[in-house]
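Sequence, please.
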């Protein structure tokens, strides 16, 4: 499987695009994870740990891209 160099560089050149991809994967994957929990053993609420941890990572990604921007002088 070959990855396009142009696609690889686009995520590094455009951090906003990288964050949007991360957010999209988060929004699409979490309902699936919760559905798996709901359809299997619901005695322990394990998706809370996964969703919470991932949300913290997403928050730091957001802060790194939009709040603490690198300044090019």
């Amino acid at each position: 499987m070959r990855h396009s160099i142009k696609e690889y560089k686009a995520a590094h050149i455009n951090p906003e695009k990288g964050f949007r991809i991360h957010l999209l994967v988060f929004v699409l994957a979490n309902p699936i994870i919760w559905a798996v929990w709901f359809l299997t053993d619901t005695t322990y609420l394990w998706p809370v740990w996964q969703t919470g941890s991932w949300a913290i990572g997403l928050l730091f990604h957001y802060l790194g891209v939009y709040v603490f921007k690198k300044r090019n002088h």
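The longest helix spans residues 15-39.
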